[in-house]
Amino acid sequence: MIIEVGHYALILALATAIVVSLVPVIGARRLDQAMMDVAPIGSIVMFGLVALSFSALTYAHVASDFSVANVWENSHSLVPLIYKYSGVWGNHEGSMMLWLLILALFSALVAAFGRNLPDTLKANVLAVQAWISVAFILFILLTSNPFMRLDPAPAEGKDLNPVLQDIGLAIHPPLLYLGYVGFSVCFSFAVAALLEGRIDAAWARWVRPWTLAAWTFLTLGIAMGSYWAYYELGWGGWWFWDPVENASFMPWLAGTALLHSALVMEKREALKIWTVLLAILTFSLSLMGTFLVRSGVLTSVHAFASDPSRGVFILCILLLFIGGALSLFAFRAPRLTAGGLFAPISREGALVVNNLILTVACGTVLTGTLYPLLLETLTGDKISVGPPFFNMTFGLLMAPLLVIVPFGPLLAWKRGDLLGALQRLYLAAALAFVAAVVFFYIEHGGPVLSVLGLAASLFLVFGAIADLWYRAGVGKVAAGVAWRRLAGLPRSAFGTALAHGGLGVAVLGIVAVTTFETEHVVQMKQGEVVEAGGYALRFDGMKSAVGPNFTEERGHFTIARGGVDIADVWSAKRLYTARQMPTTEAGILTFGLSQLYVSLGDATDDGGIVVRIWWKPFILCIWGGAVLMAIGGFVSLSDRRLRVGAPRRKARPARPAMEPAE
């Protein structure tokens, strides 16, 4: 009965979304307050109905109700409870329900916290959100219904995909979708503003918090996905330029550009047309990622197997929303004013360069991702665009950005002093270069160009510190005064410094692990020792173990340094009994910011086993830097200026709620 309630709630949510998608738009055109008031009330009701539907599906998974096809295909009575919860979104149908739940959540948040929005803009924004909701509810009900029953009900389920039975996959999809779907609000604001034909600094102030929130969650989602793939798949890598990885990375690049572009628009009323276009393109890339994952055109560990009808349906959604929004933009953009002027050497100029590099980089990733698919479709030829292409093109584009980023906060608006910024940053640059040389020497050399990469990453970190240093006036005023100035800086200043510094830390980790990691592939028998990263690994033998829904063979390794045993680590090969599917569980030992990574291969005929051992110096900086960037985003979001005080427009008076429409 609970399943039927969930199904019916989803149908009611569709009816509510249809009402919200039509009535407020008409009300905004007529300036009818009663019709516009349908938008916030309807959005909150829609969220409640979708949440009820999602809760019913969750209950079915937790209770192991195998009469529900979705539960039977993706769960098992012996699966640990945490994976029964994560199993809700560990499949195509459930993940689309999570997508819809977060979409409805953002609509409800705009309805609840958009009190300072003009009534017409708010009505149009929530209506556009409802248009998206209608499309995806129809998609779920017509092609991906998670509430289908089985009669008779099977006694046991097929089990959740073993690689998804991990805490990382319990966290990764919700974070990723909070980013993906969060950009729908920016898209809705852009379409609503184009419908009204009015875009100004107030619009940018309203859009920026939503952009920042989506960007922050997407940063965490990508980082969590990268770390999960690193430790769960046993391959030792942290990024492979997999097409589905790229599908999440492209909205992040476009969203980063949008975040900076909206800042220019808010402060100087410049880049209006460009900012609106970026808002449309960022969510369009999110929709494209949804299509790539679920259309069946890609083969990836991240992709959901899907029948062609689903891909065609999502492709139609893509064409409708992306094509419709871009057509509206093309119609309205010529009527919009360009905005304020500024000198090339200024903070606006630095942010424009930032936007150009990020969008070109995004275009490069898009080309490398889609070109093999298009070529195969048109000619039938199959090619592979792999890491060498992306590393070369993306790396060359990002290199100048790393140098430019520290200059931006030190340049004045409208017209900046480049020489003054250089004088403030020369010490940071010198310290970065010296530290890079020392780092290079300690790691016993490598490619000489790695020194430049290390110096650029450290320049980002020291440049972020220098920005706060000069704002506080350290060295120019008394220590007490400098401290009070530092404490009095807006939170967005600290958020910016954390985000830029976090980027530097992440780049440091990327350069260090790419340049200085070592890999050993050896056959080991019990008692044999291998050197890696200055440590000695002794193989102590294998041991069988049984888990709740798997069996495993575990290899034990003792780690020694200087002849003294200091730690041990287990690496395993598991077999999940329900699906008869093997997985590799890597043994990872952390030393500061570096890690020793041990992965088991196949057994040899002479009683040994193939072992892959990596020493990965400073690899934790990659994910630590991403976390720092996300913390910077949350700190900036806590800035009171992003929550209150947005400029209010002089709006046309709306008809009273009780006055009948003409």
List keywords for this structure.
disordered C terminus, single chain, five-stranded antiparallel sheet, alpha+beta, 662 residues, 19 helices, globular
Task: Report on this structure.
- The protein is α+β, with helices and mostly antiparallel strands and 662 residues long.
- It is 61% helix and 11% strand.
- It contains 19 helices and nine strands.
- It has helices at residues 2-30, 33-36, 38-62, 69-74, 81-86, 92-113, 119-143, 167-196, 201-232, 243-268, 272-294, 308-332, 347-379, 387-404, 418-442, 450-472, 479-488, 491-516, 620-637, and strands spanning 518-524, 529-532, 535-546, 550-561, 564-576, 581-585, 587-591, 594-603, 609-616.
- The strands form two sheets. Strands 2-3-4-5-6 form a five-stranded antiparallel β-sheet, with no helix packed on it. Strands 1-9-8-7 form a four-stranded antiparallel β-sheet.
- The radius of gyration is 27 Å and the shape is globular.
- The two termini are 46 Å apart.
- Residues 654-662 have low confidence and may be disordered.
